[in-house]
Structures are given as structure tokens and as C-alpha cells.
Amino acid sequence: MSAGHSHEHVGHGHAHTPSADSLAGSPKARRALAFALVLGLIILTLELIAGILFGSLALLGDAAHMVTDVGAYAIALWAAHVARRPPSATRTFGHGRVEILAALANGATLLAASAWILIESIRRLIDPVEVDGAGMSVVAGIGLVANVLVVFVLLRSASSSLNMRGALLHAVGDLLGSVAALTAGIVIAQTGWERADPLASLLLTALIIVGAWRLVRASADILLERAPVGMDAEQVSAVLLAVDGAIEVHDVHVWTMSPGHTAVSAHVRLAGGIDPGDALDAMQAALEQQLHVVHSTLQLRVDRGSLPVETVPLMAVADAVEWATDHVARSNPDLSRSVIAAAAGAATIGLSGSDRISPVAVSARTLSMLRRPSPD
To answer: What is the pTM of this model?
Structure first.
């Protein structure tokens, strides 16, 4: 007779949830964004006026990037404040993903602005226009100093959030734009070669497109709940299976909550006799130490295994009922002992006319009766 097997399910959620400040950036980072926003507005106004007056595409292109930058700083600052809101009953992970949406929007606006500059640069290479190189150089030099200051302030904020990375990418793009515009202005002022202006814009656009595409891809990966680079479900399974007592891992999910904050969920089957609490602590410690997982939800199932059938002699009816009740109860802990005993008593009917019967036979008939579907 096979006594079957039973399982104990232990659903346990345990999290090292990232704080709102770690997702949103420190107060220092938010102050840096506010500073960048104000200075960006000033430089935008200056470059726009100068680009129109001097006919410089490089300045106008940099001003176009400043439009996206000012918007990027505003979005990033708003997202950083929203992300600090605590979790609620309906937003249990908090508002950290708002920053990811902001980063995606910033990357997309960079790509859009770069596309416009690319088209206009090609047009001006074919048909150059007159540019005031000296005036362009002066304004570009002022913009360069301002952009160096913005980049320095944002770098000092020491924030690793994707939102801040997007804002910093905009600032670096503007810094490169100022360098390109300054170089083109000097070349035009010294040589009169007008094509230096659109060529500088093309170089700037190529550099920005690469960074913007990486930002968009990283943001999209997080929103699509992709596993972080360098980690997959097989690695998570291997770490969990290395814990003593784990015999099977399935239904594994790995995703990125925000850059540097990885979450994992999985179902784990444990060998019989393993304490679920100890196993859970060991698994979560292993995930955190080896894979730097900050949030894990593991559902454990304790496999009690198949109970071996004992070779026993014939017993008196009462003893056989008691033995069968104990045997069935051990393999089916979810069943009421009184129900099992009643079924065991009924199972003795018709087994033998003797006063001694087989307890194994009683146990088998008891299991059969308990598993028989009840009539509707």
C-alpha cells in the first residue's frame, strides 16, 4: 500500500524594500535639480536670442536641447518629489516608478530633438548660411561655463537613480553642445568656413543619440520588468537550491524595481523535516549576499514524502482500527482524526469473520473510503 504524501505550504513575504529617498534621490539631489532648472532657463533664453541674431544653427540646436533639458529638469524634480510619497493600499510599491517614466520621457525628448537637429544640419551642409562666428563664440563660451557648473552640481548630488541619470545626460549633452558651438564659432571667425556650424551640430547629435537611446532602453527594460543585466531566473534558482533542504525551485520571477533594486519571487519545495522559517531566512540571506536582491517573496512547500508501509501481524479489531487511524493520520495531517477513526471502523466491516484482522488492509480500505467522492 502506498501511504501517499502530503505537503505543507508556507507562504511568506519578506522584503528589504528600498526607501523613498533611495528611489527619489537625496534632498541634495533635488536641490541640484532645482539649481539646474533655474540656470537652464537663463541659458536657454540667451542662446535662443543669440542663435537668431547671429544665424547660428549650433546655438539654435543647443537652445533646442536646452528646451528639452529645462523640461527634463522640471520633470525630474517633480518625479523626485512624487517618488518620496509612502506606499498606499493601492500602490504597495510606492511611487518609485514615476521616476522611471520621467527618465523615459527625457530620453524620448532627446531623441526627438536630435532628429530635428540632424535634418537641419544636413540641409545646412548642402546650403550653408552666413553665421556670425565671433558673436556665436561669445555666447557659446558663456553657455559652456554655465553647463560645466550644472554638470558639476548634478554629479555632486551623488544620486544613482535613473531619473537623475536622465537629467545628467541632458546636462552633458548641453555641455557638449556648448563645446561644439564654441569650436564652430572660432573656426568660422578665423577662416570663414560656414560649414563648421552644421558639422559641429552633427557631431553633437551623434553623441547625444547614443546616450539617449541607452536611457530609453534602460527605462523600458524596467517598465517591462526585465531582469537586471547579468542576472536571470536560472541564477536565482541555483542560489535557492544551494540552501540545505531545497529540492525544487519553480515559477521564478526576477525584475528590476529601479536601478540597483532587484526583486525576486519563487516557489520552493523543501525536503521533509526542514524547518520552513530557517530555510526562508537562509534563502533570503543568500539572495541578498550573492545577487544583491533587496526584495524577495518566497512560497515554501514542505514535502513530507511517502510514508513506508510497515509489515505488521494480525491484530484485534480495535487495535487494527487504532493502528490504521494512526497510519492514515500521519500521512494525511489535514484530515480530522475522528473522521479517520470513523472510516477505519467502517473499513473493518466484511474484512473477516475472525477476531483478528490485518491492520494494513484496514488502512488501505480507510484511505479508499476517505478518497471516495461524496455523493451530491
So the answer is: 0.55
